[in-house]
Amino acid sequence: MTAVGVVGLGYVGLTLAVTLCRKGFTVHGMDVSPSVLAALGAGRPHLFEPGVEEGLRSFLGQRLCVGPALPVGGLDAAILCVSTPVNPDTHAPELDNLRLAARHIAERCGEDTLVIVRSTVPVGATREVVLPELRARWARPRLAFAPERTIQGQALRELEELPQVVGGLDTESRERAAALFARVTRRIVPVASLETAELVKLVNNCHTDLIYSYGNEVALMAERFRLDPLEVIQAANLDYPRPDLARPGFVGGGCLSKDPYILLSAATRAGYAPWLVGQARGLNERLPLHVAERLVSLIRETRGSAEGARLCVLGWAYKGWPPTDDMRGTPIVPMLPLFRAAGLALRGHDFLVRGDVIENLGATPVTLEAGFDAADAVLVVTNHPEYATLDLPRLLGALRRPAVVYDCWRILGEEAVRAAGVRYAGIGYG
Q1: pLDDT beneath 50: ranges in the chain
Q2: Whether the Cβ atoms of residue 314 and residue 239 lie closer than 8 Å to each other
Q3: Domain count, the chain
Q4: CA within 13 Å, CB half, 37
Q5: Is 237 within the bounds of a domain?
Q6: Residue 303, CA distances (Å) to 251, 298, 299, 306, 422 in order
Q7: Domain identity same for 61 and 146
Q8: How far is residue 13's CA from residue 6's CA, in Å, rounded to a whole number?
Q9: Distance between CA atoms of 346 and 318, rounded to whole angstroms?
Q10: Which of 38, 67, 320, 417 is positioned for an S-S bond with 384, CB 3.0–4.6 A?
């Protein structure tokens, strides 16, 4: 097996395509976005992921081809990596991309082509959505599900190091998919069915959402008790053999902001309404609003009014570590209406997010120096490691007094902030 098609060249598809090239496969990448194809065709990735740009330079035009369609015939396997969003209003999974991608594969490939679904889907969707498209043209499809479970910022490393779960329509499909991924990673975890593998991905991500939500709940309780949530969490974790409590912080991104809804939909359809999944997601989605409300309140307490106050927002992507430019599920977006309603003047800085993206969201993109200059408040949204190394005495000296620093991840030096005569707060603290 040497020739592989990858349908969908977003984070999942592009990182997989580069990794497969590194492992000796010939990869035909397909995407429907003209801007994505133009960027990749010029050797410029449309997203930030360490190692991807170097991979493009090494393999483009040799082992890697990109285009708007798969080649006719000649592929040993085709892997679906298309987006599977949820409706913004109903949170119902939208699977049209999956259906159209499966149809495209069936039209362009032969029935001896192994089809692998890598997109996150509701339990049963590979069998119910993909399989009928293949069977409409093929007598005996080979079909598997192999979930992607990497973290952005470390995807190329994790693709080779994480165990790969594989479920198949039948034994042959599972074994062929396992053989493909055995060339990529060190350990294969075969499971009994397509549905088992689908559920593995969903419970992995929902478990992460749940763990983080409890850390956030601890912080919100500590705020009411006027206690330091980090002190509580660190003391609870120290040399204690049970699972660690998570630090409070925002939970977003392309997966954690939608996968709980995909699992909720699938479970409800099967006759079970989950108790924890929806509550955890709801709490994590509420946190940015809580932070925005608390910050506006602090600015009013400090200045007497929030109208016209200058707020510098540090970090616009959904996370800072590992660094990314991904804006999916970013906490700053739900905060913005509250800031506008309060009359704040927004400035924005991010090490990776482009200035035009920040500007389109209603803020003035600035350097760090310009962001602090005569600002009334600073909001640290992401834990990008470079924010922890700022020259605080110099930057804080440029703030207009009285001023507030709201450090969501507690990565700035609290003592340095207070020593500069600036009020300091964080999630559940101050």
Answers
A1: none
A2: no
A3: 3
A4: 14
A5: yes
A6: 31, 8, 6, 7, 12
A7: yes
A8: 6
A9: 18
A10: 320
